[in-house]
C-alpha cells in the first residue's frame, strides 16, 4: 500500500522531466526513428550537459548558502554523485559473474576521468588558448580529499 503511494508520488514528480525528454529526443529504438540515432545521441549529450551544469550550479549555491567550502561540496556531492552510477554498474556485472569487467570499469573510469577530464582542458589551456602558460591548481582541500579517499577505501 505505502509502496504504491510512493511510486505514484515519484511518477508525479518525474513526469514533467520525462515528458520534456520524450518530446525533444527521438526514440531511435522504434523503426520510424532508426536513422535518427545520431540526433538522439547529440540531443542526449546536450541534455546531460545541461543537467550537469544545473547540478554544479545548485551544489555551489547550496554550499555558499550553508557556508560549506566548494572543495568539500565538490568532493562529497559531485564526485559521489558521478561515482555511484559507476559503482552500481560494477556491482551488477560482478553479480552476473563478470568480475574482470567490474574491476576494469572501476579502474578505467577513474583513469579516464584523470587523463581526459583533467588532461584535455589543461592541454587546451597551455597549448591552444595561452601557449606556454601554466595551470594553477588550488590544493587547499587536499587534506580533506585524502581523508575522504582513505575513509571511502
Automatic annotation (TrEMBL):
The keyword Transmembrane helix applies. The chain crosses the membrane at residues 12-29, 36-59, 71-94. Keywords: Antiport, Calcium, Calcium transport, Ion transport, Membrane, Potassium, Potassium transport, Signal, Sodium, Sodium transport, Symport, Transmembrane, Transmembrane helix, Transport. It comes from the Eukaryota. GO terms for molecular function: calcium channel activity; calcium, potassium:sodium antiporter activity; symporter activity. It is found in: Membrane. This is NCKX4 protein. The lineage of its organism: Eukaryota, Metazoa, Chordata, Craniata, Vertebrata.
Amino acid at each position: 500500500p505505502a509502496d504504491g503511494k510512493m511510486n505514484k508520488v515519484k511518477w508525479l514528480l518525474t513526469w514533467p522531466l520525462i515528458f520534456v525528454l520524450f518530446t525533444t529526443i527521438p526514440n531511435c529504438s522504434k523503426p520510424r526513428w532508426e536513422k535518427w540515432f545520431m540526433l538522439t545521441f547529440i540531443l542526449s549529450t546536450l541534455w546531460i550537459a545541461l543537467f550537469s551544469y544545473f547540478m554544479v550550479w545548485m551544489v555551489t549555491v547550496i554550499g555558499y548558502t550553508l557556508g560549506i567550502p566548494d572543495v568539500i561540496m565538490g568532493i562529497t556531492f559531485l564526485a559521489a554523485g558521478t561515482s555511484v552510477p559507476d559503482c552500481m554498474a560494477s556491482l551488477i556485472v560482478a553479480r552476473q559473474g563478470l568480475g574482470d569487467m567490474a574491476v576494469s570499469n572501476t579502474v578505467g573510469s577513474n583513469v579516464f576521468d584523470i587523463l581526459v577530464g583533467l588532461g584535455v582542458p589543461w592541454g587546451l589551456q597551455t597549448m591552444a588558448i595561452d601557449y606556454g602558460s601554466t595551470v594553477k591548481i588550488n590544493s587547499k582541500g587536499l587534506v580533506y580529499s585524502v581523508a575522504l579517499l582513505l575513509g571511502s577505501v
